[in-house]
Specification:
heterodimer, A: 476 residues, mainly alpha, 18 helices, 71% helix, B: 390 residues, five-stranded parallel β-sheet, two-stranded antiparallel sheet, 9% strand, globular
């Protein structure tokens, strides 16, 4: 059941209607049932790996909590943490990465003259497995560290993992944030409802009007064998806006739906294309993942505590693993390596470039900021080329087309990209300069005018959207 | 706030939302299609009416449909060259194909490619909902204006389900002008709902609508012989009118999504189609297609008219048909290719033995007079295509 489907348009009002008429405990049980239904609407079998890992995580956290309360040393908790890690990462590896490793090994062996066939799995990847695995891991790791008390109510924990707005594509909620909201009664205020509606409308606008209309422009070029430089450039720009609007649109809808039920999800995107360097970009893009990687991978690896060389190694490892989290394919590894390289290079040149970006003149400072944004956007876009490509040959072809003299320029496609991306750019610039990410809820104008604005957005969503496409991040 | 006040406020918000969306729809039409903001905007814009009935309004546009300066879909006519007209209904006019993707345009491209020239012009003289009977009333006038060498005839068969609808309009009859305030949001909502509803639910709704319509009119299992006879008469008259104007008619049988056999999974398509003609049962359509295609074959044989049996040659399936009879881009491309491959040898043969400049109208009329005795017989060697230079 996609957010942009008729089924969800029927499902959500029914859920809300019942939800608002229940007490807190009953709300939790009902949300659990609704979330099971939501997830099972893809394939009821998806529930089994999720339930299995959730039971193990709950058990491990419960045992660790008992040990903490008994004052036992931290080492005694390790077996339970390892069990949780092995279960979660084992399931993820089995469903998501087995065929990749098996296929890659087979290619390697064939290259060495072997002619046999390695075993490949014929299983469907459970939707959202990467997201709920990371979320569940944050729970057991936090309990292991003694930063979070384990819950003694299995169903509350299950609801944390299974809660339908964030289940399939995040934001990856930390247990310490969501569990408290599950356990304690929630308050739904009119402000939350207005904010929720604003997020849902804006999220749908980004997804349906911008992303879905840009998708064919990018798809058409990425389906070609040898696009021209101009076509590649426009396709990559189109994809850059498509993936951002697709994913952040999903996140906004998820956050909006959660708000309608009194939940608060963490911010996942904070104007990422207005970043001037990779470090800033990763504090603005997919924040729930980048902060997860920081807290549960980069820092445990040593972070920046072991000297410059180790810091660079840790950055690179974190980004490569982050890239691989996205999908079992070499291009995602390459994308992670590219992002890691950008971070390392930025770290090296930062002492020399930072003073350049801080001149005394405000005009010059603003100009340099604009240049920084535009230049770094090109680096981000090249990353999207690596991300979107389906083979190394395609990456080489498209990179080559950008570097050789262009023959012609697809003016029509460029104008379309400009047309569809312009509302986003305009809104984000206002958000940046007003420092108000929620400015679009128009709290400062009368309700009647606000209704008109939302109706105008709804028009573009309902009648000027592109061919409906599944959310890109669902595949991860 | 009392409940009444709250309800009133909600009502006001709903009204504001609907008005805003209607304004958006009008501005959207204006920006996308240069549609007037305060005039009606529907398919009726491309028609004008006289005592012969509806005809295309020169230069009219509606959405992707653009009529030329003679009121036919497609570009303006060029001087010279060889002209082929396509007579038919919505299948020929083009409904679902992208702009320039309707089969007459694709036929033109294919013919010019086959013949290695750019001198062949294909003129699409069809309109949606136009029966052969209605086309016939204006056909002499159209042929005199366009002066084609060839004409393809691809009639809409469903128009013959209701013989009453084939009657000519009463003298002086003009349909009332639509209201400029007709909501443009309505058709958008209908389309959106149609796209969102599952096929099975849509089929149920249609079946219910058909059931309601059945209460008001008798339902036929099979098209009466009288209707088929009327169709034959009109096909014959069309062929003769064309031949009288020195035009070589090419009869084409009617192709459908199903081809020769009905895929049971596709049966809802028939229900969808029947919604427009509720007084003929689903299987009656298939029977009608068979019988009327036989009529077309029969007329072609009796009159010695070239026949392209598209009912046999067009591949079936969703790749080529959007619904029962209308084409996808690929379907229209296949139509264009099949017709071009059929026509090209005839044109080549004429060019090879050509003697008469085609644009000399007097000469052309003399030629018509001279050839009158054999006018009703098909003679692909009739020399008339000198303009097609190679």
């Amino acid at each position: 059941m996609l957010f942009n489907s008729l089924q969800f348009a029927i499902f959500l009002p029914i859920v809300l209607l019942i939800y608002y008429n229940l007490g807190h405990k009953a709300q939790n049980r009902f949300l659990l049932a609704a979330s099971c239904f939501f997830y099972a609407s893809w394939d009821w079998r998806f529930l089994f790996p999720l339930l299995f890992s959730t039971i193990i995580d709950y058990y491990c956290a419960w045992r660790m909590e008992k040990q903490i309360l008994a004052g036992e040393p931290k080492e005694r908790r390790k077996p339970y943490l390892v069990l949780s890690l092995v279960t979660n990462l084992g399931l993820l590896g089995f469903f998501k990465y087995f065929n990749f490793f098996s296929g890659s090994a087979q290619d390697l062996l064939r290259g060495m003259g072997w002619s046999g066939e390695l075993w490949m799995l014929d299983v469907i990847l459970p939707v959202g497995i990467s997201f709920y695995t990371f979320q569940a891991l944050s729970y057991t790791i936090d309990v292991y560290r003694g930063e979070l008390h384990a819950t003694n109510n299995f169903f509350d924990f299950l609801l944390c993992v299974l809660y339908f707005p964030h289940l399939v594509a995040g934001p990856i909620q930390r247990a310490n944030n969501l569990l408290a909201q599950v356990v304690n009664p929630r308050v739904v205020t009119s402000e939350k409802i207005v904010d929720g509606i604003h997020l849902i409308v804006w999220g749908f606008f980004k997804k349906v009007f911008i992303a879905d209309n840009l998708a064919p422009i990018a798809n058409q070029v990425f389906a070609q064998n040898s696009p021209t430089g101009g076509e590649t450039l426009i396709a990559v720009y189109a994809f850059a806006f498509q993936i951002y609007c697709d994913f952040s649109g999903y996140t906004d809808i998820a956050r909006g739906v959660a708000k309608l039920m009194g939940f608060e999800f963490m911010l996942n995107f904070n104007l990422p294309y207005l970043a001037t360097n990779p470090q800033e970009f990763w504090t603005r893009w997919h924040i729930s993942l980048s902060s997860w990687l920081r807290d549960y991978l980069y820092i445990p690896l040593g972070g920046n505590r072991g000297g410059e060389a180790k810091t660079r190694r840790n950055l690179m490892l974190t980004m490569v693993i982050g890239g691989f989290w996205h999908g079992a394919a070499w291009n995602f590894l390459l994308w992670g390596f590219y992002q890691g390289s950008l971070l390392v290079i930025h770290r090296i040149i930062k002492p020399y470039t930072d003073p350049l970006f801080e001149p005394k003149s405000p005009v010059l400072r603003r100009l340099l900021w604009v240049i920084g944004v535009v230049v770094f956007f090109q680096f981000t876009c090249y990353g999207w080329l690596l991300f979107r490509a389906t083979s190394f040959a395609q990456i080489a072809n498209m990179t080559g087309s950008l570097l050789t003299p262009w023959q012609g320029f697809p003016v029509d496609s460029a104008l379309k990209v400009l047309l569809y991306a312009s509302p986003l750019v305009l809104v984000q610039l206002i958000q940046y300069f007003t420092k108000k990410l929620e400015f679009l809820n128009f709290g400062w104008i009368p309700a009647e005018a606000r209704v008109a604005v939302y109706a105008a957005f709804a028009y573009f969503v309902l009648f000027r959207g592109g061919q409906p496409q599944a959310f890109i991040y669902f595949q991860f | 706030m009392t409940r009444l006040q709250f309800a009133l406020r909600l009502g006001l918000w709903a009204v504001i939302a609907v008005i805003t969306m209607e304004v958006c729809a009008r501005v959207d039409d204006y920006v996308s299609h240069k549609a007037p903001l305060l005039e009606p905007y529907n398919i009726g814009r491309i028609y004008e009416f006289d005592d012969l009935g509806a005809r295309g309004k020169p230069g009219a546009t509606y959405l992707k449909w653009k009529l030329n300066n003679l009121g036919f879909r497609g570009p303006d006519l060029k001087q010279g060259g060889l002209r082929v007209v396509c007579l038919g209904s919505s299948e020929t006019f083009g409904l679902y194909e992208s702009e320039g993707g309707e089969y007459p345009r694709q036929l033109e491209r294919e013919l010019n490619r086959n013949l290695g020239t750019d001198q062949v012009q294909v003129i699409n003289i069809a309109y949606p909902g136009m029966s052969l009977s209605a086309s016939l009333r204006r056909l002499p006038q159209v042929l005199s204006t366009v002066q084609p060498r060839y004409a393809t005839i691809y009639p809409s068969l469903a128009a013959y389900i209701d013989l009453g609808a084939l009657q000519p309009p009463k003298p002086g009859f003009r349909p009332p002008p639509p209201s400029p305030w007709e909501p443009r949001l309505k058709s958008r909502i209908e389309t959106m709902v149609k796209q969102m509803l599952p096929e099975s639910l849509q089929t149920r709704v249609r079946a219910w609508q058909i059931e309601r319509a059945e209460r008001n009119a008798p339902v036929m299992d099979r098209l009466p012989e009288e209707n088929v006879a009327r169709f034959k008469e009109d096909v014959l008259r069309t062929v003769r009118t064309m031949q009288e104007h020195g035009v070589t008619p090419i009869l084409m049988t009617h192709a459908t999504l199903f081809g020769n056999s009905v895929d049971e999974d596709e049966r809802p398509v028939l229900i969808a189609w029947r919604k427009f003609y509720p007084n003929l049962r689903e299987d009656g359509f298939l029977d009608m297609e068979r019988r009327m295609n036989d009529v077309i074959r029969q007329v072609a044989e009796e009159q010695n008219v070239p026949l392209l049996d598209l009912a046999q040659k067009m591949p079936s399936g969703r790749t080529y048909f959007v619904e029962f009879v209308h084409f996808t881009d690929q379907g229209a491309a296949r139509m264009g290719k099949l017709i071009a491959d059929f026509l090209s040898p005839m044109i080549r043969q004429r060019v090879a033995s050509n003697t008469t400049p085609p644009d000399d109208v007097n000469q052309r009329q003399r030629s018509m007079e001279e050839s009158r005795p054999s006018r009703l017989s098909y003679n692909p060697g009739t020399p008339r295509t000198k303009a097609l230079s190679h």
